[in-house]
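Fold sample X.
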Amino acid sequence: MTEQNTPRLKVFQFHKITRVFEFGGTSNTPEQFEAFVKMIVAAGHVPIVPSDLDKPQGPRPVIISFDDGYHSLHEHALPILLKHRVKALVFLITGYIGRKNVWDLALFGHREQHLNWPEIKAMRRAGIEFGSHTVTHADLTRLSDEQLDDELGRSKEVIEEKIGPIDSISFPFNRTSERVKTAAIKAGYRYGFGGFTNNSFPMAIYKDAVYITDNRRSLRVKLTESPRLVYRYECVKSRIINLFSMTTELVRRYG
């Protein structure tokens, strides 16, 4: 996939697929997720994964991605993806594989479980592709060069030791910089997902986030980027939710 045609690549960012209500807003119910998958396919989009990007693409490639690698993906998302024969990409936080989420700010004490290695390997066999979401979900732009190299390199090494080569990273909190992108390339990544612009292929590919507040209308806007003004409004909403997610980093640093 070349620079001139990358605007045709749509990437959607999900997190948890669960029936458990959570106040962070970054979840979707299984029913909601399946409705979105059906809409994407019905609109003529072809779900792909990064390993497909070197191949010729049709006019509407789309990547369905999941940040954080929660257990609920194995329980709820995988059956839906297999049912509709849809590819997907999951980004793993290697320091929390098989553990509960203690890196995030938990409201009312609920801690979500992350995928374990047997689940990850089963999903890999089923055709799901994996990438890195670093070791600890730190804001990479705030790390020293040594810490940055460790977060990028060690997470890639751990995943590849378990399930084979990967070439993608999702930058935590969608925050990146030229220094971070350069370090990611040095660590061996070919594709970086994150940032807040639509034209930064291949190392800061924009992701349209899908949250519990989304519906068929808002997803259609994100799919078509039309009406343009409404699409910009949806992007602003996503950025606001993303800013709230940064409280995790503030609590970790100063709490």
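Fold sample Y, listed below.
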Amino acid sequence: MSRIRALRSFAFAALAGAAFTVTASANPLALIAPDRQSSDPRPFAVMPPQDQGFVQAERFKRQVVDYPTREAPGTIIIDTPNTYLYLVLGDGRALRYGIGVGREGFAWAGVQSIRKKAEWPDWTPPPEMLARQPYLPRFMAGGPGNPLGARAMYLGGTEFRIHGTNAPDTIGTRVSSGCIRLVNEDVIDLYSRVNVGAKVIVLPIEHRADARVSLR
């Protein structure tokens, strides 16, 4: 009988632990990835890192494409509607990356330049974001759990950045408050290729660039 009671106690404890886990994950104050819409409240600390089974969609994999442009090599062009970032290589070609862009009402267009670069950047949500999402942390040190990912390139005097992400499944979607995100592997590659001062052109949501894959 004592053994049966012990088994019952163990089962009860396991059920209680499961109930606590569900309750905690449903907590509206749980930290979520910045710029995520409220319909997707997954804690950013447990989002799937790209090196644990995540497979990037083929069209978003880094690749060299035909891309005629008058812009100088080293220029970054953000194709907002198609969720691509082009790094101009010259000779009618560019290196293309898949990206996540601003959600409805937060997309923007214009010309900026990279004013600063950072490896494993810290994250301090701006006041505007905290007003929308007051449950977010006021500061988060850089690292694998940081929603800015492995690298960040800061654009002019704005709050916008080109950065990595701990939510690689958001590439190809419109989820941010205006920042441009890449998977960590791609943002590390881009970071190594561009310099402070590089020109960044963000195309409007109505624009559609057309590029044909020429080399993988």
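Sample Y note: DSSP finds three helices and twelve strands in the chain.
Also: Residues 1-51 have pLDDT under 50 and may be disordered.
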